């Protein structure tokens, strides 16, 4: 399968400022597969070691001498390690923290050697060792499940991807193409972007087999919980995982997770799921200007799950007859999809963070699904599961923050409304609002920076 991350690895290989690369991402998003393909294609020698499977590595990485480490690894695995000709890949590096520390010495003393490290629970280790982190001695990259465009490519729909990429408000948009993309969008809602699930669907077209893969992935996540602490803590993690998958886009209420458990324990469990990159916590912010994280309330958040297919599986949505399936869950799935696509639209070297805005007042509640930064401007993004829906919250935000442009993502064809009018109630006073509305089909969410950015410059 083609992954856009492959291009980033090529860029890293040739970069004159290259440092050892540490890839972060949840379990089974394709980190190891991507590096395997990259290493075998681009290097004469490829030395792959797994810290979880080889206990000898802990002793090897006790040394701070890169020459000695390389000599021992080469002897243990029988593969030459030659700068410029060998890629050294340390998988599951979180189980050998000494290897993370050793990366600084490779950068300082053997910078010509290409080194990549990865791990599915890496963020926990990095969080615990932050006090001794060798800052500036290695660089990070982030992997997520296949986004919608990658899903289309996996299904040999290169033409649809090209059509999306070449979109412009200056030319008419084909409803026939839109309909076909929407059919694949609905399929993606239930299959998701976990590489193994996509591979099984592409090869078999059997949705029951996809369900089996999704079940196995969720089981592997829960198996990892045993590494996080006591049996009670593992139960909290399981409760929070199930809650997050079934409450996409809703403000977290600890009493709704488990009334018998203190909120502090549940918050800790949610933060651990975030460190595992299974759940992304979309935090509430009052910011309307950059920096977007200036007025963030870190105690108020709503969940977006790692993968929309896993959300459906956790919600017990059966895949055998999805073409005729209409559920009350459509709104949550739409918000999950957009959140997932927005995360995937960040540069690979950025640790994606999402935010939302809400005003809670008697008879005047308003909430914007996402605030999203394009260039140096922040835009409110409203997600609608269908073709219609009120824009009351978006209009309130624009009037209150004195902004002039909002973004809507729905299931209709693109449109760009300029100088639209509305009457908005702000703190009991009616105000006339003149605003612009960029409206895009939600499958363009991953291209939002590019599409909206170009349109708003005109």
Any key phrases for this structure?
single chain; 458 residues; alpha/beta; eight-stranded mixed sheet; five-stranded parallel sheet; 18 helices; 21% strand; globular
General description of the model:
There is one protein chain. The protein has 458 residues and is an alpha/beta fold. It has helices spanning 5-14, 31-42, 56-60, 66-77, 97-109, 122-128, 148-154, 158-165, 175-191, 195-204, 207-224, 231-246, 254-257, 263-275, 308-314, 330-344, 392-401, 448-457, and strands spanning 21-24, 45-50, 86-91, 114-119, 139-142, 279-285, 296-305, 355-359, 366-374, 377-383, 405-410, 415-426, 429-441. The strands form two sheets. Strands 7-6-8-9-10-11-13-12 form an eight-stranded mixed beta sheet. A five-stranded parallel beta sheet has the order 2-3-4-1-5, sandwiched between helices. Strand 8 and strand 9 form a beta hairpin. Helix 10 packs antiparallel against helix 11, helix 11 (207-224) crosses helix 15 (308-314) and helix 12 crosses helix 14 (263-275). It starts with a helix and ends with a helix. The model has no long low-confidence stretch (mean pLDDT 92).
Residue stretches low in confidence (pLDDT < 50, at least 5 long) are none
The biggest beta sheet, please?
Answer: 8 strands, mixed
Find the count of extended strands (DSSP E, 2+ residues). Answer: 13
Shape category = globular
Structural class: alpha/beta
Helix amount: 40-55%
**Span between termini:** 37 Å
The spatial strand order of the largest sheet comes to: 7-6-8-9-10-11-13-12
C-alpha Rg (nearest Å) = 23 Å
Mean pLDDT: 92
Number of helix segments?
A: 18
Please report which band the strand proportion falls in: under 5%, 5-15%, 15-25%, 25-35%, 35-45% or over 45%.
Answer: 15-25%
């Amino acid at each position: 399968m083609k992954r856009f991350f492959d291009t980033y690895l090529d860029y890293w290989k040739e970069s004159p400022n290259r440092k050892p690369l540490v890839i972060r991402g949840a379990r089974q998003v394709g980190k190891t597969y991507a590096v395997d393909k990259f290493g075998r294609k681009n290097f004469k020698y490829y030395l792959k070691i797994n810290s979880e499977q080889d206990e000898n590595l802990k002793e090897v990485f006790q040394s701070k001498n890169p020459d000695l480490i390389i000599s021992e690894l080469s002897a243990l695995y029988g593969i030459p390690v030659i700068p410029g000709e060998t890629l050294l890949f340390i998988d599951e590096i979180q189980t050998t923290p000494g290897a993370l520390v050793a990366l600084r010495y490779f950068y300082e003393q053997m910078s010509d050697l290409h080194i990549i490290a990865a791990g599915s629970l890496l963020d926990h280790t990095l969080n615990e060792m932050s006090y001794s982190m060798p800052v500036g001695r290695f660089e990070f990259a982030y992997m997520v499940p296949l986004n919608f465009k990658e899903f289309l490519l996996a299904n040999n729909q290169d033409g649809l991807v090209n059509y999306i990429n070449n979109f412009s408000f200056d030319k008419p948009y084909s409803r026939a193409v839109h309909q076909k993309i929407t059919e694949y969008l609905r399929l993606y809602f239930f299959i998701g972007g976990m590489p193994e699930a996509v591979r099984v669907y592409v090869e078999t077209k059997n949705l029951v087999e996809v369900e089996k893969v999704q079940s196995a992935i969720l089981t592997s996540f829960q198996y990892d919980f045993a590494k996080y602490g006591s049996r009670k803590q593992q139960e909290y993690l399981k409760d929070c995982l199930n809650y997050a998958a079934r409450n996409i886009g809703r403000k977290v209420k600890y009493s709704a997770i488990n009334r018998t458990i203190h909120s502090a324990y549940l918050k800790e469990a949610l933060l651990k799921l975030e460190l595992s990159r299974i759940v992304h916590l979309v935090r509430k912010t009052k910011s309307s200007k950059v920096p977007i994280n200036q007025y963030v309330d870190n105690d108020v958040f709503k969940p977006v799950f790692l993968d929309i297919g896993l959300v459906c599986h956790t919600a017990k949505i059966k895949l055998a007859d999805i073409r005729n399936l209409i559920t009350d869950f459509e709104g949550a799935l739409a918000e999950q999809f957009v959140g997932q696509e927005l995360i995937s639209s960040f540069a690979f070297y950025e640790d994606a963070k999402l935010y939302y805005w809400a005003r809670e007042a008697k008879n005047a509640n308003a909430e914007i699904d996402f605030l999203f930064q394009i260039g140096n401007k922040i835009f409110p993004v409203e997600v609608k599961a269908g073709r219609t829906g009120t824009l009351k919250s978006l209009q309130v935000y624009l009037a209150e923050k004195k902004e002039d442009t909002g973004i809507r993502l729905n299931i209709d064809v693109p449109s760009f409304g300029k100088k639209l009018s509305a009457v908005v109630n702000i703190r009991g006073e009616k105000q006339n609002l003149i605003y612009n509305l960029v409206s895009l089909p939600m499958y363009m969410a991953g291209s939002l920076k590019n599409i909206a950015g170009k349109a708003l410059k005109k």
